[in-house]
Design goal:
By secondary structure, the chain is of the alpha/beta class. The chain is built from 8 helices and 7 strands; from the N terminus they run αββαβαβαβαβαβαα. The strands form 3 sheets. It has a 3-stranded parallel beta sheet. A two-stranded antiparallel sheet has the order 1-2. The model has no long low-confidence stretch (mean pLDDT 86).
């Protein structure tokens, strides 16, 4: 048998170590405690640091109790915590953040994460997770490394930037060449060459994405 005070002290100590505690009782007497802990990914802290460097806010939404959640968040550098969330309430917590004007990219891998993945603006599912989470995700990362989330967001930003550049140059070529061609000031050969150059420049600019992501 374990005294209630001693058991509470043990629970507090284990929860401060980012462990979830289960008490075992017999005849209403505590006879032991079991501590369960998730193993943090080796690159989790690095991923959070890189997200902060990109001016991206990080939040933890978890069913763990407040102490355990704070301990885990502290280990990786996350300051915003929503703890003790029931599985069915994760999506509603995402919706609450969206009502505050935030654009949410939710990362999850479990069955309980599927509704939140769908609710978020961008659902990022880990390829090592459950099938239902993978089906619910807008993006599926084949490897279950947190830094891959950073790579995915970096690639999406770079792709959007490139699309805007391509639209600008395509519009510029057409805006400059079409009036000249309409008034007969541009020969068909030159006009065809300008259009070909426009296509080549767009393709060449797009290929830069691959080089930048190396």
């Amino acid at each position: 048998k374990i005294a209630t005070t001693t058991a509470q002290n043990d629970v507090n100590m284990l929860e401060n170590e980012a462990k979830t505690v289960i008490a075992i009782a017999k005849n209403k007497q505590i006879i032991g405690v079991i501590a369960i802990a998730d193993t943090l990914k080796s690159d989790a802290k690095e991923a959070v640091e890189q997200l902060h460097a990109m001016n991206i806010e990080t939040w933890m939404i978890t069913g763990d109790n407040q102490k355990t959640a704070q301990a885990i968040a502290g280990n990786v550098g996350i300051k915003n915590i929503i703890a003790e969330v029931l599985p069915q309430d994760k999506a509603s917590k995402v919706a609450e953040l969206q009502k505050q004007g935030k654009h949410i990219a939710f990362v999850g891998d479990g069955i309980n994460d599927a509704p939140a993945l769908v609710q978020s603006d961008v659902g990022i599912a880990m390829g090592t997770g459950t099938d239902i989470a993978i089906e619910a995700g807008s993006i599926v990362l084949v490897k279950g490394h947190p830094t891959k989330v950073v790579e995915a967001l970096t690639l999406s930003r770079l792709t959007l930037k490139t699309i805007r550049q391509n639209l600008f140059w395509a519009f510029f070529y057409n805006a400059a060449a079409l009036p000249l061609a309409a008034f007969g000031l541009l020969s068909p050969m030159v006009a065809a060459g300008a259009m070909a150059l426009s296509s080549v420049s767009v393709v060449g600019n797009s290929l830069r994405i691959k080089r930048k992501m190396k």
